[in-house]
Amino acid sequence: MKPKFSIIVPTRDRPKPIETFLQSLKQSKILERKDLEVIIINNSTKEPPIKSICDAYEVHYLCERKTGKSYALNTGVAHAHGQYLVFTDDDVIVKDYSWIDKLYANFKKNDKIAYVSGNVTAHSIKTDAQRQWEKKGGLSKGNKSKYFSQAYLSTFKLKPWPLTKICAGANCMIKKEPLEEAGGFCTLFGPGGQVGHGESLLIGYELIRRGYELYYEPNAIVHHNHPESETDIKQKLFLYAKGDTAIHMHIFLKYHDFRSLMWAYIGHPTYVTKNMLKYFIGQYALSPKYTFWTVSGSILGPYVYLYKRFLEQKPRGSKNE
Prior knowledge:
The protein is 43% helix and 17% strand.
């Protein structure tokens, strides 16, 4: 029987997290489902023990040798048999058997919905850095559902669509046909790519551009490991901010969307600077020693993108370049 769902997980020579992830699928009995397949893509030229782990859990193993998470994601999509593709990270833990069903149920609300994201909560909180990250909100999009309908999105005249409020690369389900229509994941973005973040945000934009809608389901939960140290947080904040403004430069150049140009150079740096000031009146969790890195990434993002895009060799592999 052809599976209805494909769970796609990219990794890079990380057998331990993959085994923990697959064990969580086994313990939650998700691996017993007959309507899904699991595809692990190792983005590496090596042959670590990941294949033998996949064989032991009877899931599919693929190897993508082109460096970049988006290459691995696109390889997974190309080999997937499901109509609905579930994307998550290799360091995620799944405890809820109905995780897939909670994501899928929202597609029945409207034929235009092509993307449903879920909640990402902390797996464990042991260090001060993890407590601060959780206080900031972690990777969660909140406890209330969100519906990015075309009617709602049409109200954004000056500001760009708030993709960071709904897109979640560690927990989302996308219809395969619209995803392929959008050209898959842009290989310029994502870990290992020329810009190390942003592929999960950009695909949301591409779907919206084509008339599709997005939904956030807070009850579809996976558990993720928070950054363990101050250095980890600083690196993540810098990377996220750099990617956030870089994708808006990409959007402007590709679609001449002037909202993105304004956001890349003015809106986003202003937004993160305001967060830094809010700390002093108790309205933001992270101190300036962290938000400095967000401001730095925000300012550098467009320039990093332009340098990588035009002065280094252009990667191939996605119609979204």
